[in-house]
Structure formats: structure tokens, C-alpha cells
Design a protein that fits this description.
alpha+beta, 5 strands, 33% helix
């Protein structure tokens, strides 16, 4: 099962809200995807990482089988992923499959 997500790009607004760039109307928050507690010491870094999620997923998907004959760039298995493949694990987690 693949989980659908709000299409990117996502951006950080008002320091702690992550929203889809297409859902900003005159800087008003229409429908935040996520928020991070402002009091958390890593608030800015956490917001940046969450906002980058759609781009990171797309980047991983683009390199997964970029060179099919050479195999997965993470585990080097050809045509499939190895049992401890970190790329496959990350993609499954991002897609809600694990």
C-alpha cells in the first residue's frame, strides 16, 4: 500500500508551520501539514527537514534504479533490494509501507 501525501514543495511559515507552497494565501495559513513546538530547541532544523521531505523522497526515487544494470546504489542488488538495504527501508518508510 502506498500512502499519498500532499504534493510538494513544502515551505516553513511563521517559524513553526509546514505548509504546501500552493496553499499559502497572502501569508495566511490555510491548511498546515505539520507544526513544530516553537519551544523545542531544534525547531528550525526540524521544520527544515520536514519541509524537505517531498524533495528528499523524489531524489531517492530518482536514484533507486537510475542505473538498473549496476543495481541499487545502496545495496548493489540488481533488480531487487537486499535484505538490509537502507535505500529501500527509507523509501518504504516515506511511502507508509513499513
Amino acid at each position: 500500500m502506498t500512502t499519498e501525501h500532499t504534493p510538494g514543495p513544502w515551505v516553513v511559515v511563521d517559524y513553526c508551520y509546514i505548509v504546501a507552497a500552493t496553499e499559502i494565501d497572502n501569508n495566511d495559513l490555510i491548511n498546515p501539514i505539520a507544526s513544530v513546538r516553537v519551544t523545542h530547541p531544534d525547531c528550525e532544523a526540524n521544520c527544515a527537514l520536514i519541509a524537505a521531505a517531498p524533495d528528499l523522497l523524489a531524489a531517492l526515487e530518482s536514484v533507486e534504479w537510475a542505473s538498473w544494470n549496476d543495481g541499487c546504489p545502496s545495496c548493489a542488488y540488481v533488480g531487487t533490494h537486499g535484505p538490509n538495504c537502507t535505500l529501500d527501508a527509507a523509501l518504504q518508510k516515506a511511502r507508509g509501507e513499513s
